[in-house]
Design goal:
Shape: globular
Number of strands: 16
Helix content: 10-25%
Largest sheet: 7 strands, antiparallel
Structural class: alpha/beta
Number of helices: 6
Distance between the termini: 28 Å
Oligomer: single chain
Radius of gyration: 18 Å
Bound molecules: flavin-adenine dinucleotide, FE2/S2 (inorganic) cluster
Strand order of the largest sheet: 4-3-7-1-2-6-5
């Protein structure tokens, strides 16, 4: 894989938190990176930790930073305002979601390889499952300036989770597991309908492994290019620990440097052991 990468500077920076906004089941945390690269690419990620109270004590498990795709980036006079959409699923995410304004968010990044432009003659089709909506936000923003505008399909567990859809421009198509917003369906059902109506698409997907695998298979059956933003457990985030390796048709790759966005046709399956929550 030879995509250009925005290499992270070696240093860990501390970004003051500008705000944490509650969005139903999720939190949108925004912090201003004072001195990092100002050109992250949609689909890239940062390793995040609280600058204080992050491990070291008997009850403080976090210790290692956690990986998060950035959802938004805005240049401001004092740095790059980065927003991350979080789902509090454990001690690390809970600690980040509890950060108060002006607290320090320690970050390293941007890391990895993000989304690439759509294949010639295809329209971009963005497919998100749950918290997987996060990297699609900045990708929609970037694609929005070049015609045709991307269609966005989103699936959530419930209305509480579906509040994140309000962050998207236009009118994304939404389904939920419990039918509380949109139809009771899986987002891959929406995708199948879209592709059957018009298969000239490049699909960009992020979500839980079972969803990504369904997207991969649907696209492979129809010969539609797919770019999948995947997850695996990441300890370092920059290629040193090999904790994030996933199998591909070309052998194992480190998801943190060769991904997290991988081409669907590189994979036998997007069901990666140990990933997803
Ligand atoms: C490239 C990348 C981008 C990510 N982007 C986001 C994002 O934008 N927003 C967001 O909320 N989360 C994102 N994640 C997942 C996030 O890193 C985990 O939710 C976080 O590490 C959990 O830490 P914790 O201490 O809160 O919970 P833990 O106690 O560590 O884990 C709680 C649960 O989450 C699962 N889990 C832990 N780490 C991961 C992981 N890396 N991938 C999948 N499941 C995991 C565990 O199996 C467990 O079930 C991303 C992960 C990767 C690798
Ligand atoms: S997270 Fe350490 S090599 Fe990928």
């Amino acid at each position: 894989m030879s995509e250009p990468r925005t290499l992270a500077p070696p240093e860990r920076r501390v970004a003051p938190v500008a705000g944490v906004e509650r969005l139903g089941a999720y939190d949108l945390i925004t912090a201003v990176d004072p001195s990092g690269p100002t050109n992250p690419r949609p689909g890239q990620f940062y390793m995040l930790a609280a600058s204080e109270g992050w491990g070291g004590g008997t009850d403080e498990r976090p210790y290692l930073p956690r990986a998060f795709s950035y959802a938004r980036a805005r240049k401001e006079s004092d740095g790059l305002a980065l927003s991350f959409l979080l789902e509090a699923v454990g001690p690390g995410t809970e600690c980040l979601a509890d950060l108060a304004p002006d607290a320090g968010l320690a970050l390293v990044g941007p890391l990895g390889v993000g989304f690439r432009p759509p294949a010639d003659g295809t329209r971009p089709l963005l497919v998100g499952g749950g918290i997987g909506a996060a990297p699609l936000l900045c990708w929609q923003e970037e694609l929005g300036v070049m015609p045709p505008p991307p269609d966005v399909l989103l699936g959530f567990r419930s209305a509480d989770h579906a509040q994140a859809a309000a962050l998207f421009a236009g009118a994304p198509k939404i389904v939920t597991d419990d039918g509380s917003v949109g139809r009771q369906a899986l987002v891959t059902e929406l995708l199948a309908v879209e592709l059957d109506a018009d298969p000239s698409a490049t699909v960009y997907a992020c979500g839980p492994p079972a969803m990504l695998e369904a997207v991969r298979a649907l696209c492979a059956e129809r010969d539609v290019p797919a770019q999948l933003a995947m997850e695996s457990g990441m300890a370092c985030g920059f290629g040193a620990c090999f904790g994030c390796v996933v199998p591909t048709r070309n052998g194992y790759v480190r998801l943190c440097v060769d991904g997290p966005v991988l081409d669907g046709d590189l994979l036998e399956t997007a069901l990666v052991a140990g990933a997803g929550h």
